Amino acid sequence: MQTILSSETGARSQNVLPEKRSITLTINGLVHKLELAPWTTLLDALREYLQLTGTKKGCDHGQCGACTVLVDGKRINSCLTLAVMKEGSEITTIEGLANENGLHPLQTAFIEHDAYQCGYCTPGQICSAIGMINEGHAKTLQDIRELMSGNICRCGAYSNIVDALQEVMKIDSNETV
Amino acid sequence: MTKYVGKPISRVDGVAKVTGKAKYAAEFKSPDLLYGWVISSDIAKGAITHIHTADALQVPGVVQVFTHENRPGLAWFDLSYKDQDAPPGSPFRPLHDAEVKYSGQPIALVVAETFELARYAASLIRVEYKVEEHATDLHANLSKARDPKLGVASLLKPPPPKPRGDFEKAFSEAPVQVSAKYVHSAEHHNPMEMFATTVVYEKKGKLTIYDKTQGAPNSQLYVSQVFGLPFKDVRVISSYVGGGFGSGLRPQYQLFLAVLAARQLKRSVRVSLTRQQMFTFGHRPATVQHISLGALNDGTLTAIRHDAIAETSQFEDYTEIVVNWSGMLYPAPNTKLSYKLVPLDVYTPLDMRAPGGVTGVPALECAIDELAHQAGIDPVELRLKNYTDRDMNSDLPYSSKELRECFRQGAERFGWSNRNPTPRSTRRGHTLIGWGMATGIWDATQGPARAEAVLTVNGKLRVSSATADIGTGTYTIMTQIAADTLGMPIEDVLFKLGDSDMPLAPIQGGSWTAATVGSAVKVACEDLGKKLFKMAQKMKNSPFANAKPDDIFFADAHIRLKNDPAIAVSLREIVGQNGGRAVSETSTSTPDFLEQRKYARSVHSAAFVEVEVDEDFGTVRVTRAVTAVAGGRILNPKTARSQILGGMVWGISKALEEESVLDHQFGRFMNHSLAEYHVPVNADIQDLDVIFVDESDTIVNPLGVKGLGEIGIIAMPAAIANAVFLATGKRVRELPITLDKLL
């Protein structure tokens, strides 16, 4: 038997808390003014301070893709991004995809192809798919599989996700595996 | 009449899921919300001698740090801590005392005004321990294996049957023999949504709890008993669950901690676990199995022995049905099955998708493949030779079993007749190709459940039951059943679930929700129909005045006469007679135990798989797979197919990727992140195909459904391992089949 100390020490106990600061985020076309501590991730800013909970937290470490949002049209992991870093950017979340004309084609295709089960990775999958299409590199089904591999779906809806994307992207399925 | 049942209806909760409107447990806000951060133990066994919390408490915005030293008095007896899925033993109690029973045990909760502050303050906490020696290695402790304790749970998970015949004699005399050891490590469920609870502290201390659970009533029961609260003061809501796979069958510790903090602080509290902490509660237990098969030269099985030893915790005896399947699938006259446990310093294992089934059946199905190879018989042929329509364990006939048809249709779709049976003799470029197949079996069970059906004043049907939808499609199939039973257009039917205020349903697990809750929804709608018919008869100039219940039917939101469907009364008109009130009925569905006990009831499958193995790197890829399922009536081919596809992905994962690795020096799972705990990504999944063979069953339940949540995973691991053997000539009997085992 022995006594051990946990690896954390009290060295950081002099509480130097980061000051909150005013930041302005443009999300889904709306301008939000927030008082946020700089250590707040974009993901937590969305979920906890703006109640935009469509963006999901699946690992908080950039390993699962559930938190994928679009920043200036590019897909990023919002858990690996501090909110203060995105002032002046156009942020699009799952809540911003449908408009007065109805659902985004990818949203419709996900429903039609049953490209989800529990639905928790779905917003990230859809935002990631939009980002992938914007990148313009996916030409075949195998490209889609590779380029969508940053988004884990534990329910295992991958083949239906690929079917949904194939329909929207109008990719020929005669391509060999 | 089935206008909707049997049709590929898109999920009724689809729009909510693709627009981000579906709200999960950590997504409810309250103006007074506090955030909790859990501190996990660094050691696997010992005692906390001191927790230094002063630094954390000094941080402005930190409200409290809860530990075993300041937690309030709670229920005394083990019974109060038992949930619906508790195995025999003494359930773990968070913050109970200074004792540490496993690595990652929650030992403190930091509560602060923001999530960021709680997380930061937690880093200031120091813990001193008195460390004791721990044991976490199953393989080093096999000599400690003992029989599991029996308890209520043993009813659902019966121990192995008594031996049949004389295994030793039959095996020693068998001209074809196979004996092998099969191993897999622990696995963690890792649903995408991390466990979280939001407790909203209402007036007079009532609690509205948004919890990640596979059974809202189970969480309600737990909170009510542990904290000594009446049911009416504890409402648990779980409308959407971001995956479960069994992890939500028991209340997890964030529920306890969030309720404790909310009650002490009289404020709303949210506690979310981290991905690392998703490895600090139940898991699929590591298991070691030995299988011996004896057969005649023509492949007829004469002897089966299947022994399994699994881990459990030091405080509960978690059990699974691992070996019983061997006595069910094959009618060998001489069988000997055993199942034992080794208690270790880990958390109690927990049902994980096809618990026991995807442990025992793959081992058996690999051994059967070894036997087929040794006897020089095609694996499908060998299975057909040893086919049985009786479960030899219980000596009862199957209520239905279209497994033969699964073999036939699966083989045909896959092109099995072109199989090259010689190992390491098929190539595609620098990859080795192999084909393999295996059988799957799982229980088709039904439990009791309740449901309420309400016809609103504007003629809409509202049905509810406190079940869950963990992604399985419960919302959708229940809506279909309700719409068909009362002849309503589906857009006028709303099914709700996941609220402890709703009529009681059991936890969602074991593939029994479609059968259990589906039957309750059907009965509730039928009973509501009877009530509406009686009301219709009492209407002025009722066309049904002399009609009997058998003379009418429900269609297009009307009651109609069978012999003259033009004579009809609309349901809306009937409810209009109720003085401006809705008409409702709450009903209970109970299985027909007397009839069901005369039969063995199982769902079956056959999986056919092609793998490519890179000869230089040993990497394995499943290039295509076909699973044929005999699952009784298919309520919704679209969601049913997804269930099987998901199961197949889990099968690929189990065979090739998934493994929780313990560092026995620390008694801790090392790869506790989604970067290091490998599950399939999109690129790992190629061509998957699903077949549902026709199967009619009037015994299993009034709907004839068998449940599909587990069956998709069970046959896959063995089919893959067998395909890898054919590709490479190597038998890998330790899952997952990683490249190091093939080089």
Automatic annotation (TrEMBL), chain A:
It comes from the Bacteria. Pfam families: Fer2, Fer2_2. Gene3D superfamilies: 3.10.20.30, [2Fe-2S]-binding domain. One of its GO terms (molecular function) is metal ion binding. Residues 21-97 form the 2Fe-2S ferredoxin-type domain. Keywords: 2Fe-2S, Iron, Iron-sulfur, Metal-binding, Oxidoreductase. InterPro entries: 2Fe-2S-bd, 2Fe-2S-bd_dom_sf, 2Fe-2S_ferredoxin-like_sf, 2Fe-2S_ferredoxin-type, 2Fe2S_fd_BS, Aldehyde_Oxdr_Iron-Sulfur, Beta-grasp_dom_sf. This is (2Fe-2S)-binding protein.
UniProtKB/TrEMBL annotation, chain B:
It comes from the Bacteria. GO terms for molecular function: iron ion binding; oxidoreductase activity. Pfam families: Ald_Xan_dh_C, MoCoBD_1, MoCoBD_2. Residues 19-133 form the Aldehyde oxidase/xanthine dehydrogenase a/b hammerhead domain. InterPro entries: Ald_Oxase/Xan_DH_a/b, Ald_Oxase/Xan_DH_a/b_sf, Ald_Oxase/xanthine_DH-like, AldOxase/xan_DH_MoCoBD1, AldOxase/xan_DH_MoCoBD2, AldOxase/xan_DH_Mopterin-bd_sf. PANTHER family: DEHYDROGENASE, XANTHINE DEHYDROGENASE. This is Xanthine dehydrogenase family protein molybdopterin-binding subunit. It comes from Larkinella rosea. The lineage of its organism: Bacteria, Pseudomonadati, Bacteroidota, Cytophagia, Cytophagales.
